[in-house]
């Protein structure tokens, strides 16, 4: 087989000591298995998770009782003609429900502090936007 026509599988697994293996592939656009997580999924998930944990820490510090937290984050990927690319921005859409309606404004403002604390956000070279919504139960 000519090496210029060789095709490698894009699927692999990540092993971290004392944790279950994670099956990973390239994104479908890059001929990966669309049923598996890809590196872009994992980066976005890490950022979303870290923001949530930083935010919940801020809420504890301000005695805000969070009933629920969900986020449907999105990453914008720029692909260059040479096949390289990068994530150019992430949008977080956290929806928070808190116990006390008098704390909604404070709860919304804490996303800025959470972003400042987030290890993953502080490690990224792209902008992270927060489109938070908050309500009380």
Automatic annotation (TrEMBL):
Signal peptide: none annotated. Pfam families: OsmC (PF02566). InterPro entries: KH_dom-like_a/b (IPR015946), OsmC/Ohr_fam (IPR003718), OsmC/Ohrsf (IPR036102), OsmC_Ohr_Peroxiredoxin (IPR052707). It comes from the Bacteria. This is Osmotically inducible protein OsmC.
């Amino acid at each position: 087989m000519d090496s210029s026509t060789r095709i490698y599988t894009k699927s692999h697994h990540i092993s971290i000591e004392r944790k279950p293996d994670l099956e990973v592939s390239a994104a479908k656009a890059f001929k990966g298995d669309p049923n598996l997580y890809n590196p872009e999924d994992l980066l976005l998930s890490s950022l979303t998770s870290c923001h949530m944990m930083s935010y919940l820490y801020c809420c504890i510090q301000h005695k805000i009782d969070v009933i629920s937290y969900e986020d449907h984050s999105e990453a914008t990927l720029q692909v260059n003609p040479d096949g390289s690319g990068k994530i150019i921005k992430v949008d977080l859409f956290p929806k928070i429900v808190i116990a006390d309606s008098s704390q909604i404004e404070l709860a919304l403002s804490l996303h800025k502090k959470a972003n400042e604390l987030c290890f993953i956000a502080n490690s990224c070279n792209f902008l992270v936007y927060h489109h938070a919504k908050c309500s009380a139960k």
